[in-house]
# Entry
Amino acid sequence: MAKIEDTIASLELKLKQAKALKQKQEAQKKAQEQKLTRAQDTRRKILVGSFFLQRASSSDAAQAELKTLLSPFLTRPDDRALFDLPVSQAQAPSSANTPKPSNALEEL
# Structure
């Protein structure tokens, strides 16, 4: 009887180790996929940014258009400084872009 219990214990240990190995491999695969996704996202952002910067350098009107598009998007002073945008506008977010909170008491 002890031999069967030892065999069961040994097999349970091997199963536990195999499950742990499988979990580790799945975690590594997921991390690798996330890394690839982040790299692709970064590459897309670089390419889109390069496109718009090249377009903006073609004329003053295109540069002004880019600044107009970026102004509500850029909120950090150091980001706004990169595009020579005024910092004061960054401190007051546009009410057109921010949803107004719902007040359930007013609706009753």
Notes: Residues 2-56 form the longest helix (55 residues). Residues 7 and 13 are 10 Å apart (CA to CA).
